[in-house]
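Help wanted!
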Amino acid sequence: MITLNNIKKTYNKGTVSAVQNINFSVNKGEIFGLIGPDGAGKTTLFRILTTLLLADEGTATVNGFDVVKDYGKIRDCVGYMPGKFSLYQDLTIEENLNFFATVFGTTIRENYHLIKDIYVQIEPFKNRRAGKLSGGMKQKLALCCALIHKPVVLFLDEPTTGVDVVSRKEFWEMLKRLKAQGITILVSTAYMDEAKLCDRIALIQKGKILSIETPEKIVESFPVKLFAIRGGKAYKLLEDMRAFNGTDSCFAFGDALHVTFKNDENNTVLQYLDSKGHIGVSIETITPTVEDCFIRLLKK
Amino acid sequence: MKTLFFLLEKEFKQLMRNKGVIRTLFIMPAVQLILMPMAADYSVKNIHIAVVDNDHSTYSQKLINKIKSSGYFTLTGYAPSYKEALVLVEQDKADLTLHIPAGFERTLVRENTEKIYVAINAISGTKASLGGAYLTSIMQDFNNQIRLQWLHGTPDNTPQVTVAPYYWYNPFMDYHLYMVPGILVTLITALAAMQSAFNIVAEKESGTIEQINVTPIKKHIFIIGKLLPFLVLATLVFTMGLILARVIYGIVPLGSLVTLYLSLIMYLFAMLGLGLLISTYSNTQMQAMSLAFFFINIFNMLSGVFTSIDSMPLWAQYIVETFPPSHFIKIMRMVVLKGSGLGDITYHLAAMFVIGLVFNTWAVLNYSKRS
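Answered by r_m:
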């Protein structure tokens, strides 16, 4: 549905490199996640695929159309929700939706079934101006506007940034339902916990793709054992663990430290922590999360 | 076409909701059109004159009285010497000094000639040159009076040329008649070039243009959809200006309104093109403002509202020829004051069309839905 071949893009006349040698493809009816920190090049890829930006090198297709030659056809069949809210703030919910329906030559009624689940939630406020909506409602409206012309591919650039936890959860449930309708979705996010909700994810960092896999496979491919260490004074524990000569990596994860060792033998750790004066420290083996994998990939 | 209709519907909705813009577009030009022509008066009054009368004779008294009663001058005071009169000029209390030498009357009677010294403060150019001219003409009049007196009513046989000018199209030299149409043009200039540019750049700033760019809307439809509302608004403001000119200044265009509006549309074609061009080179409203301000300032200063284009150096005249307002101001004055018809203004209409074509083509080529 979407393919990218050796896509490269630089800004400021080649001095700032945004993305290099990006290759991946997204299958029909898939939720594909681009996971990476701010500035990784996610938005650049979105803008290239939605025909807003020309790549320096490489080719890309969306729904079988070339992003350079057939950009007109792509604009007819994709929905794009930019990271920044970009609907008309001085028009109401209904007017915005109506406007975007009409510029695509369709009506709200024609494709109402697609947006129904989402639209009913904001319908009570349909006469409110978009600028006066809360963050979550803005996202829902933006999604409605991106969907109203029944696109075959949906591009969502960080749709959940700045949205509360409940709305984020709801949003991903909506994406699942859209996927069930056969819509291919390319979504980017900086939240690692959302990664496992995708069918496949590409970890991206500094314009390069580190890994493309299903979330499960990425987790499975974690090469060493991962331990969680809890207890004691959190900060001192982190410092002492990092100072321990058997430690390979050590990061704070909520109330625990996620630690890998140079070899999986770690009998001496508890002794070591005892000697440093930590009391009641526990250690257990855990399954890594996508975030653990990402951090490990970054270190390489 | 249908898309254009929806775009226009959206634009007008947004414009109507933006109370600030509507206020700016209608109330501000109205205020300017009422205030500016009243204040921007070309005829100079209240010229302060300091007199050094070293003669104290009947003639010198007569001359001074004549100057005082002309209505243009106010006497700031008498000074005993030229030096002290100059102090008054330095203190900005007097604009010019008149020095009547001692023995003025005697020399005049005996030798039939005498010289009077006039010193003018040239800080304010118009006041100085006009003041000097007024004073000269008063002096000439005075001179004639004396001659008539001396000849005791016997017919003057020396040949004399008197100039009796008639001001065509504006017999009373009412400056409102040519200022108001000019000022109306400058107001339309600001509206057309600035507001249209701001409107497009605002979409860039808010990111909505990104959303528009991924839709199948055609480039030219989007541009027409952006410019047409301002064509309508500018026409409304222009109409309001004509009504104000009639109500407040009693100015009724001698020529046909059809000619005026036809020229207006041609003018807006050029100026909206400039607005569009500015918008393609700006990413923020601040940038658009600086660029628009640069052009509008030059246009307003050099297009012939306040200074005559004909008295500019030749190179400047060629440059001004490329300014759409210079043509529209000429058309306005020709049609309003003189009643010129389409045949008389063809050149200016064509000029505006060509300039507009250049601006618009340039802008469309530079406007791109992708980068």
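OP: Thanks! One thing I noticed: Chain B touches chain A at residues 2-3, 6-7, 10, 13-14, 17-18, 206-208, 210-217, 369-371 (CB under 8 Å).
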